[in-house]
Amino acid sequence: MKGRVISSTGNWYEVETSASQSFACKVKGNFRLKGLKTTNPVAVGDWVEIEHDPRISSGSGMPGGWITSIDERRNCIIRKSVNLSKQTHVIAANIDMAFLVAGLTQPRTPQGFLDRFLVTAEAYHVPVCLIFNKSDLFDADMQAEYLEYSRIYRDIGYRVLRTSTMDGDGIGELKETMDGKTCLFAGNSGVGKSALIHCLAPQLNIRIGEISQTHLKGKHTTTYAQMYKLWGSTAIIDTPGIKEFGMVQFTKDELALYFPEMKELLPHCRFSNCTHEHEPGCAVKAAVNEGRIAPIRYKSYLNILHGEEVPAPSLLDNRQERK
User: Fold this and answer.
1) More confident residue, 78 or 308
2) pTM of the predicted structure, to 2 decimals
3) How far is CA 4 from CA 55, 121, 181, in A?
4) Structural domains of the chain, count
5) CB atoms within 10 A of CB 213
6) Are 55 and 105 part of one and the same domain?
7) Residue 320 banded pLDDT, cuts 50, 70, 90
8) Residues 128, 97: contact at Cβ < 8 Å?
């Protein structure tokens, strides 16, 4: 039978067939994806072939089976494994659009976190929409910072929204953007992903987390990836809150290809192997100096280039420095 993985919990995968029947499945034998050293050979969103096996039982009441093969992925979001640095973890596959939920307060999302996610999405062909959530908490500085973020990322081709589950700000526009798509929701712990999903589909049993007042970091409420059907052909994949987004290694030569505003300038650099850091005749550095590339994006590029996890300074910090 053919089906799609809609849930992943350790070694068990829930697969829904075209007949809307669910099976609790395990991966058969030593089946692994070719060319990828991943902690999870199968991810939510994968299309797979399964074999029913009445001897398999997960205790969930669903019939059991084996995943025997996986279709080629159209795209995926992938990051370094938290515990195994030399392996990767596929967050989700076959995504129409990823919605990266960010916070300017309670908790604040580092701008470098945004860019590491966006670089990975560019590399694996996943369109991204940025959502700045909890807009009801924005003060004047946060509102100005949101507008600056919006300008920077819209100028390089990303969709940017602001939302609030408290007053409904932006929820209608978010629904329109999601309509008919398989959507991935990702972001830091505590930025309000689950609350947004609950607002979009109150009938779903999504747990809402609290913010730790000690560290202003979200408590994890989602422990595994889960796909939910919303309306029509619209579906959402909710993921665990991510404290840090560890990137899969990119070579220095290819990193700039995943910054859209840099990619178009690469043919104009004097040297074909330009790292855009110290070489003369660099079109990227010239664009930064002329204001055509945002300094915070360039700082993120340098951080990633050198393998640094330290986030680039926030827009608010930059604004204070200019004063």
Assistant:
1) 78
2) 0.85
3) 21, 21, 15
4) 3
5) 8
6) no
7) very low
8) yes
